[in-house]
Amino acid sequence: MRVFSNLTYGFAGLGLMGGSLAKAIRAKLLNSHGAEGKILAMDTNAAALAVAVERDVIDEAFEPEAAAAMLRRCDVVFICLYPEKTIEFLKKHRSDFKSGAIVSDISGVKTSIMMSLPDILREDIDFICGHPMAGSEKEGFYHSSEYIFDGRNYILTLHSENKPENVVFFKRLAGALGFSRITETNYALHDHKIAFTSQLCHVIASALVDSAEDAEITAFGGGSFEDLTRIAMINAPLWTELFLANRTELLAHIDAFKLSLEKITAMIRSADGDGLCRELEAVRLKRTAMSTIELTK
Amino acid sequence: MRVFSNLTYGFAGLGLMGGSLAKAIRAKLLNSHGAEGKILAMDTNAAALAVAVERDVIDEAFEPEAAAAMLRRCDVVFICLYPEKTIEFLKKHRSDFKSGAIVSDISGVKTSIMMSLPDILREDIDFICGHPMAGSEKEGFYHSSEYIFDGRNYILTLHSENKPENVVFFKRLAGALGFSRITETNYALHDHKIAFTSQLCHVIASALVDSAEDAEITAFGGGSFEDLTRIAMINAPLWTELFLANRTELLAHIDAFKLSLEKITAMIRSADGDGLCRELEAVRLKRTAMSTIELTK
Q1: Taking the domains of chain B in order of start, what are their residue ranges?
Q2: A91, A187, B14, B32 - which has most CB atoms within 10 Å?
Q3: What pLDDT digit, counting tens, does each position of A47-67 carry?
């Protein structure tokens, strides 16, 4: 069984997610856990890399041109780029990974990556496709934090070439970084569910802000509007990519949401108090059941 | 100028809101502030009243039949009932209030109450119509807390009969209980804005939960779905009443939201990446401007 010690961890992309994962490895494995190891990172943002070295988050920084040299030294690699760039990177650097390496990504859509597997996989590396379900409305390394994963979900979309011992190692690693629930599923189910829990929510939050008459609305806020729209402070290029990459699933969920919205709206329009009260009671029970699952898992 | 001391505070309704206001008066005025005073409360729930007395939240409890006897002793009265019950109560007990009393409500819709003013007002009492913008998805006295008002908005919908010195007193009282921003507006603007920031958000959250395929969805949650739908653990009878009482305004906001949703959906459907990215960028800027207002006020 592979242990956390004496490993070199590599990051392709040291933004919010890469930076947070690197900080969590540094704080929770290499510092607190007492493991020996190195963290290397590559990014296009030289200033962020310099700060990361200065603050001892990473041991060595690499320019994009030196990615191959970095990859050849890494036992565990996290590709923390946007989805399309992730696929490009994996294809371009297929021959650069160290033999025996575990390679993972963080992409919020999985179908496109899994379709590219024939151009990505190598017999002597293990690509564990993953989605750490955490983030922030604030982007970039400067907003990264080792705490954003605490208590969060990590979803793995495995394939037939994954080695069980590497999956076990990876799940232990995720647990050590703070994730509380690690779920294995297939890429199609992932993209179907994520279109609902994540992408639809971002679409709704964006539409709600779009429909606001003015920015002074918060004088009338009681917390609901603020909670519903915090995620509308959105990383526009990233979410454009995610929405379009998972378009079919997302559109189906938008349609289902519109039907539910229309059902409730019709009851309000016709002043159907009894129907509305029954509907809201059913919604309450359904959401409360979700909270119970949330708490007990 | 009226001071907080030597006043008798009365509550008609000691649920989540009444209980929280009573606890805040006890903790922040009568205990910490050193003011002398009494808190009386009336509710249909005898068990909750008994607990409130036992825990020293209130000094005396009254059954609904004894409401008049309680009101005759109170200098400041909070009617913490559902909107329709609030109007009924104010009409029924019009002659029971102590001369000189300040009476306020907590109703989330104001037009219907303001329309009833001729049947409510008395020359020697001051009815200050207010909406403390706080709450919880958990109902009842047992979930009440003196902290739920900290940093929140309090909206007052004043009328021509309000005495300036009483309004000043009431705003100082609200500030002492923890509210950070007290806004004066008229009832029509209140109901227009609240239909957006509060009622529309509850409709959307309810529709989103309604459209969920199953309750196991939270294994795929990254926080967005949870944040958007916490308010869907809704008090069904109360929100049915609020939705219907403010139906015209709410339906207008639902229509505007649907247009924004359709605009974004159309871009996703046609895979218009440039348009989508521009739209999301605009949304981000708009929501960020709201946060700045939120922080600086």
Answers
A1: 7-185, 190-296
A2: B14
A3: 999 999 999 999 999 999 999
Class of domain B7-185 as given by CATH: alpha beta
Closest Cβ–Cβ partner in A153, A213, A277 for B240: A277
Residue A221 has pLDDT above 90, yes or no: no
B287 contacts A233? CB cut-off 8 A: yes
- Listed ranges B25-34, B183-192, B213-222; the one with the highest mean pLDDT: B183-192
The string of pLDDT tens digits covering residues A14-26 is: 999 999 999 999 9
User: From the list A220, A230, A271, which residue is nearest B194 (CB)?
Assistant: A220
pLDDT score, position B219: 77
Q: Which chain A residues have a beta carbon less than 8 Å from that of B195?
A: none
Does the pLDDT at position B31 exceed 90? no
The chain A residue lying nearest B179, using CA atoms, is A222
CB contact under 8 A, A284 and B234: yes
- Angle at CA B143, nearest 5°, toward B138 and B145? 120
Q: Is A190-296 in CATH node 3.90.1170.30?
A: no
Tokens at residue B22, please?
A: 């009573």
Q: How many CB pairs under 8 A join A and B?
A: 302
User: What span, in angstroms and rounded, lies between the C-alpha atoms of A145 and A123?
Assistant: 34
Q: What is the ipTM of this complex?
A: 0.90
Pick from B201, B259, B268: CB nearest A225: B201
